Each structure stands twice: as C-alpha cells, then as structure tokens.
Amino acid sequence: MPQNQDQDALIFFLLVLFGVCIWLYIKLKKEKKLRDAVSKENAKLIADNALLLNEHLKFQLQPHTLNNILANLKVFSNKLNKGLDSLSATLEYILYRGNHHLVSVQDELHFIKKYLELNDLFTNEIDSISLDSTQVITTSKYFYTGCIPHLITAYLVENAFKHGDVNHPQFLRIELTLTDNQFAMKVVNKIKKKPTTGNGGIGLKNMKERLDLLLPGKYEISSSSNEQEYQSTLLIRF
After folding, report:
1. pLDDT by residue (tens digit) across 37-73?
2. How many CA atoms lie less than 13 Å away from 210 in the CB half-sphere?
3. Which of 13, 82, 93, 140 has its CA 20 to 30 Å from the CA of residue 32?
C-alpha cells in the first residue's frame, strides 16, 4: 500500500512538473512573440522617424534652393526682356533705316547702344563694355543731320566682338567724338592670347568700299595692336 502511494505521488509530481513546463513554454513563447512585435514596431518607428527627419531636412533645403533659382530666373528674365528690346531696335534700324545711305550721328549712336546691350547678354563680366560719348557735341548740326553712312560703326564694333576676348573684365572700350568739323570713333578691345588671323578681313574691305562711294576722300581708317589689345579708328571729315 505505501508503495502504491509513492507511485501515485511520483506520477502526480511528474504531471505537475509537465504542466509547469508547458505553462512556462507557452508563457515564454508569448513573451518572445510580444518582444518580436515590440522590436518590429520599434524598427518601424525608427524608420518612420528617419523618413520624417529626411523630409524635414528636405523641406528646409527646398525653399532656399527654389529662392536661389527664382532670383536667377528673375535676373535672366530681365536680361532676356532687355535683350529682346535691343534686338527689336537693332533689327528695326538695320531694316528700315537702310534705305537712307547717310544717317545722323544721333541715329548711329542709338544703334551702337542697342547693339552693345544685345551683346552684353553674352559677356561674363559686369561692366566689361564701356561707351564714352561725352565728346559728342549734341548742338552740332551733324548730330541730327544725315552725315555718316548707315551702319558704318557696326564694322568696327562687330570686329571687336568677333576677334576680341569677350571674357576679359575690360573687354571693350568705345569712344565717340563729334564736332562741327568731324566725327571720330575709336574702338579698343582686348585680344585673346592667340588672336585669330585675318583681323578686319572682308568687313573692313566692305567698309572702305562704302566710304569710297559715299564719302570719297573724306575719311581715314587706321588700326594698331600689341600683345594685349587691338585698336581701330574711324575719322570722317565734313
């Protein structure tokens, strides 16, 4: 009888132990599942926070970048509008004043200004082009009267842009003079380290032919150069 009781006690103990083991297994499994869920949720939160931080930083950057772009577009837009106005005025002068062989100094001066404004769009340096017309006497009758060939100044200016160093901070200097006796134009442009050969070329030849036809014996053209700059001068006597 005592032996049977001992066996029953052992079986009961084993059953209790087995039940405790199952309970512990279930409990640990639930806890592991809970930890995995918490870990997964934490990972998601970390990823979301990183994404939010990235978005926050991005939106801090974007307004600044867009503001810079907007400022550049405004400058470009202003230059473009100015360029279109200059192009329109230049074309109008070329096309509709071309039927007049001789134009006034005022007309030609206005053309030079518009032509320079147009080309200023393609120069990198600010104030690299200067036009000095302080020696133009506006009270002279030749300021308003046709006295010089239409577009005669364009030859020298265009030649400077074609062969000069447009990236130089002091690229081009133009000086105009008008008195009751004569009109003079001096163009000085910086030249490239390896200047293009044939400076002047067919443009200068055409210029001389026009002057011979319209103002024979009343003009002088001269030019000189050194390692840094090229200078050309036109003189027309009245």
Report:
1. 767 777 777 776 666 665 555 444 445 555 665 676 6
2. 18
3. 13
In sequence order, the β-bridge partners of residue 172 are 129, 189
Q: Regarding predicted confidence, which is higher, 165 or 43?
A: 165
What is the residue-wise DSSP string for 2-41? HHHHHHHHHHHHHHHHHHHHHHHHHHHHHHHHHHHHHHHH
Contacts (Cβ under 8 Å, ≥6 apart) of 235: 182, 183, 184, 185, 219, 220, 221
pLDDT attached to residue 101: 82
If you ran DSSP here, which 8-state letter would residue 191 be given? B
Does residue 198 come out as left (phi exceeding 0), alpha (psi in the -120 to 50 range) or beta?
left
Dist. CA 168–CA 189, nearest whole Å: 9
Chain-centre distance of CA 181, in angstroms?
44
Question: What single-letter amino acid sits at 131?
Answer: L
Question: Which tokens sit at 200?
Answer: 């002047």
Q: Quick: pLDDT tens for 17-32.
A: 566 667 666 777 777 7
In the chain, the N- to C-terminal Cα span, in Å, equals 153
Exposed/middle/buried for residue 105 (C-beta within 10 Å: 0-12, 13-18, 19+): buried
* Helix, strand and coil percent figures for the chain, each rounded to 5: 60, 20, 20
